[in-house]
């Protein structure tokens, strides 16, 4: 089978983010795709999907005509346990895991069709703010359904836990504060939040990458989640990145946004706020310009005041 080239944006990300490891992955990718399409009897039906970060995502049909997607990612700590979450979801609110290759970490997935992201889905008759409220309700309702206590599966990678994330953040904040005194107040808040959130009231499969572009229209269910980056966490954690992203981009914000997210997740409002603030501090620690820093501090102020 001729190898369909990786989108240029994905290739650049792989090289920029992973250096020599990424280069070796790119060199091995054609052979990996050829091996898996042969082993799983897959027949490509189009070019790789654009827009991913570091994954080669190819639409195919299985031998029985089932529409599928081959996803070969450069596996790291965030993506390694994606198959574990998808197996636990078992198609309820997320694309089904059809097969898994432990050697490469590649996934054979159900293809969501038509596959329009919730972010760009039209809601006729609704203005911008009403459409945003509808999107948030749909997304958070789906995230709420997906949160569940996992059943161990020895054939799949283990799920990371928030204890590891909190430890990593604490170490990073302390080191960054030493190097960048101008961020000291923000990072001190982050350290306090790490301590406050260290004893969760529950643990289940949550997602560190909840956003509206990963919720797609489908036929088997109206909406299906793709690309989870799972972590063992309380329900409120599902609002961390999602609320940060919504506050950053609007149009809703402040207390209205926090109420909508916490209510949609069925999670404690103050713990959703705390996780979103902590995520925002992590974003502040990695700000790439003065303007970016100012924008993320404005997000932190808005969430704190909500």
From TrEMBL:
Biological process according to GO: secondary metabolic process
SUPFAM superfamilies reported for this sequence: Protein kinase-like (PK-like) (SSF56112)
Keywords: Kinase, Transferase
Species of provenance: Glycomyces terrestris
GO molecular function, one term: phosphotransferase activity, alcohol group as acceptor
Protein name: Kinase
Keyword Transferase belongs to the record: yes
């Amino acid at each position: 089978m001729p190898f369909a080239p990786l989108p240029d944006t994905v290739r650049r990300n792989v090289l920029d983010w992973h250096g020599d490891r990424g280069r070796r992955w790119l060199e091995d990718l054609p052979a990996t795709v050829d091996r898996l399409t042969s082993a799983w009897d897959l027949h490509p039906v189009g070019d790789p999907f654009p827009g991913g970060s570091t994954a080669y995502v190819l639409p195919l049909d299985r031998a029985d005509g089932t529409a599928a997607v081959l996803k070969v990612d450069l596996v790291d700590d965030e993506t390694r346990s994606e198959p574990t979450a998808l197996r636990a979801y078992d198609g309820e609110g997320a694309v089904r895991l059809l097969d898994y290759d432990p050697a490469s970490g590649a996934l054979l997935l159900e293809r969501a069709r038509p596959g329009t992201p919730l972010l760009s889905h039209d809601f006729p008759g609704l203005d911008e703010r009403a459409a945003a409220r509808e999107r948030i309700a749909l997304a958070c309702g789906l995230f709420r359904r997906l949160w569940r206590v996992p059943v161990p599966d020895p054939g799949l990678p283990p799920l990371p836990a928030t204890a590891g994330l909190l430890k990593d953040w604490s170490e990073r904040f302390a080191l960054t504060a030493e190097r960048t005194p101008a961020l000291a107040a923000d990072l001190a808040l982050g350290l306090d939040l790490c301590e406050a959130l260290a004893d969760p009231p529950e643990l289940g499969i949550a997602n560190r990458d909840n956003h509206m572009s990963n919720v797609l229209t489908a036929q088997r269910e109206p909406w299906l989640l793709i690309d989870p980056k799972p972590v063992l966490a309380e329900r409120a954690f599902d609002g961390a990145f999602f609320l940060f992203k919504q506050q950053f981009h609007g149009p809703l914000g402040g207390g209205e946004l926090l109420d909508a997210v916490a209510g949609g997740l069925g999670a404690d409002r103050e713990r959703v706020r705390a996780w979103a603030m902590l995520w925002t501090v992590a974003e502040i620690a990695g700000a790439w310009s003065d303007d970016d820093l100012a924008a993320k501090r404005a997000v932190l102020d808005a969430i704190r005041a909500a």
